[in-house]
């Protein structure tokens, strides 16, 4: 059985992604073909219990078996000692710059017959249809025309035409069938080039260019930055598609569940819907979602390795979009009132969520009641703006929570002299962070202290009117800009 070895760059040394990629290219270029490799299961892999690692003859990990092939290869391992036994395989080719093809013997009794697809997640929380975007219907159509056909040398131009159309339509998603079909189409193009070397030079050039482009698509699903961008871009496109005023999904949702346009729905109805939908998201396998944080750091790889169908992807992403839309509506209803009572300030999470009393008390000790953003002359309620800003970040990452605190201090939404540990307690008090135990609070506080200390050291190198959040580097700086914008927008 032939399979693909991926994630090679992540096994290479390097201070950043580009250096790892360069080292991976050199490694693949120098690897003799054929080469013997060893396969070993990793049932405790944090991303996928189906993971199979690949080691070279020096017993160094060089990559992983692509998830598209792990199910059948796993059947060859002894079930009694499946994590301790190894399989021998042979590298037989190279795909692009940093991907390899290999071969392993699979006994006939281990080959899997086709089986009907079974849902990995609970049935949709909506009893109304959630339509696919037209471009995704086209992707399915072209893939179904392209893959089953056996192309001959005289069909080269037709193969090129369909493949180019597929490439222009596909924006690689986390949908399992898209990922698999893209790899299959790439294999089909390469096989055609090898089987028909006498085709015209112009067609051969076009086919090789297509192979290179599609190979880049396949590689993107393994690169964390691209993977997250793919997911966020898909959400934006879905949101625009669902917002169609005439017959969009959002409008039909309002009519069927809220019974009125969103702007006219009662607060208790919206809150009830948020609780219903977040409860459904909490049941997604592998603990991907949490009611108070729909943007966990590992959401994208975890979803990819669930091997979800297009319908299941839409169920999850559509539910996420509806929840965010409902929460935005609640945020807009927060009264801008300097006399807001402390009791009202604390009613931000459902009663069933356990919050320690000292975390509830920390709210008033940490957050100012209001603050005025001088450039806009707008009086803002600190707690509301903190909640808005927290939705922009991963609140389980020390550096991002430290940045949230630093910007809060900068705009005077947080009282001066506040300690990190009390800031974390206040975030728990308003439901932004989930309480687990005091040790977790201490660990996050220590990490934040280190980040803020680095910030203070950097202040000596810049002028006094330099915004604090701009002192962080690279991606952190852009995250700071998002926090600052959310904190200072009414």
What oligomeric state best describes the polypeptide chains here?
A: single chain
Residue fraction in strands: 5-15%
Radius of gyration: 26 Å
State the helicity in percent bands.
40-55%
How can the largest sheet be summarized? 6 strands, antiparallel, barrel
Measured between the Cα atoms of the first and last residue, the distance is: 59 Å
Global geometry: globular
Question: What's the count of strands?
Answer: 8
Count of runs of 4 or more consecutive helical residues: 18
SSE series: EHEEEHEEHHHHHHHHHHHEEHHHHH
Helix/strand/pairing category: alpha+beta
Average pLDDT score: 80
How is the largest sheet built, in terms of strand order?
Answer: 1-4-3-2-5-6
The poorly predicted ranges are 335-353
Spell out the key features of this protein.
globular, 6-stranded antiparallel beta barrel, alpha+beta, 18 helices, 490 residues
Summarize the structure.
The chain is of the alpha+beta class and 490 residues long.
Describe the structure.
- The protein is α+β, with helices and mostly antiparallel strands and 490 residues long.
- Helices cover 50% and strands 9% of the residues.
- The protein is built from 18 helices and 8 strands.
- Helix 3 (134-146) runs antiparallel to helix 4 (156-169) and helix 13 packs across helix 16 (420-429).
- The termini are far apart.
